[in-house]
Specification:
Layout (H helix, E strand, L loop, with lengths): L6 E8 L2 E6 L4 E5 L1 H4 L5 H5 L2 H4 L3 E3 L2 E5 L12 E3 L2 H6 L2 E2 L1 E3 L2 E3 L7
Antiparallel strand pairs: 1-2, 2-3, 3-7, 4-5, 5-6, 8-9
Length: about 110
């Protein structure tokens, strides 16, 4: 993992889209809908938008606290997504006349 993949700050835009800034100052967006469709387990919990939008950053990584059925005393109900996945599946935010222009479909 390179430092540019770690997230400095992030904000929820709605509709399962997160705008984030990497530790290297790059602004990007990621649409999580494709990832959340078709998966079970922890991903299923994240399909609830109220749960999804309560992410936080843990050492530069998007993380969620989720309620999973308890299987053991050591179980941790914390879920994160690899920074590599987030970076590789995100789109850069374009700068246009001093303002950021967000592209959701890849047409920056």
């Amino acid at each position: 993992m390179t430092p540019s993949m770690l997230i400095e700050r992030a904000v929820y835009l709605g509709n399962f889209i997160i705008l984030f800034e990497t530790t290297q100052g790059e602004m990007r967006t990621i649409d999580f809908k494709p990832l959340l469709n078709g998966f079970m387990g922890a991903f299923e919990s994240l399909r609830n938008e109220e749960v999804f939008k309560k992410f936080y950053l843990d050492t530069g990584i998007l993380t969620w606290n989720i309620n999973l059925p308890k299987k053991s005393e050591k179980q941790i109900n914390q879920f994160d997504i690899a920074p590599e996945y987030i970076y590789e599946n995100s789109l850069p935010v374009a700068m246009d006349k001093g303002e950021y222009r967000i592209s959701i479909s890849g047409n920056a």
